[in-house]
Design a protein that fits this description.
The complex is a heterodimer of chains A (115) and B (108). In chain A, strands 2, 4, 5, 6, 9, 10 and 11 form a seven-stranded mixed β-sheet that branches. In chain A, strands 1-3-8-7 form a four-stranded antiparallel β-sheet, with no helix packed on it. The model of chain A has no long low-confidence stretch (mean pLDDT 92). Chain A has strands spanning 5-7, 10-13, 19-24, 31-37, 43-50, 53-56, 65-68, 75-79, 88-95, 105-106, 110-114. Chain A is built from no helices and eleven strands. Chain A has 115 residues and is mainly beta. Helix content of chain A is 0%, strand content 49%. Chain B is mainly beta and 108 residues long. Chain B is built from no helices and eleven strands. In chain B, the strands form three sheets. In chain B, strands 2, 5, 6, 9, 10 and 11 form a six-stranded mixed β-sheet that branches. A three-stranded antiparallel β-sheet of chain B has the order 3-8-7, with no helix packed on it. Chain B has a two-stranded antiparallel ribbon with strand order 1-4. Chain B is globular. Chain B starts with a strand and ends with a strand. The chains are: A mainly beta (115), B mainly beta (108). The interface between A and B is medium-sized, with 25 and 24 residues.
Amino acid sequence: NAGVMQNPRHLVRRRGQEARLRCSPMKGHSHVYWYRQLPEEGLKFMVYLQKENIIDESGMPKERFSAEFPKEGPSILRIQQVVRGDSAAYFCASSPGQGDPYEQYFGPGTRLTVT
Amino acid sequence: AQRVTQPEKLLSVFKGAPVELKCNYSYSGSPELFWYVQYSRQRLQLLLRHISRESIKGFTADLNKGETSFHLKKPFAQEEDSAMYYCALRTGANNLFFGTGTRLTVIP
């Protein structure tokens, strides 16, 4: 089991462009979580998805950010019209179920740099 | 609102010395706390959780509700313990709230 995969590992975008971050959960996991880590800060929850459903998006910025987890394929975190403040590390985690005792397994992260 | 505070950004100890990484939390509900670790060039992984009350790699952490703390301790630090440590609070069934992390360096 390769674990949670994220790509790309590094992404550079100019202001105003779109950023697409991909996350493939561990085999057998149907729950995906996205977190953002700004410089000098802890990881902040953004969104929780199950296949074809957004369950909790309370941590998502109201504009420009969206997430999906289609029936087939990876989960996608999409940031439209990126700004410098979007520069951060974005982590994806997956679990086979919800809550305890289901541990969240983390991917290596995608580091987004907006120039 | 929830808060997780890790007051030390950096902590250095000598090999064989005791180590304590501090974590304080603020949460109105019943807290569930975790310690995550990230070794160099590796991904974030769960180290231990308070409900299991186990010792992992010699580390223990006790939830003190009176002091709202969940400090991570190890009596004798090893060089391989050098890593970034994050305290996390489960704030719902779905998500974790992380502290800013403490970078532990064990000096040989």
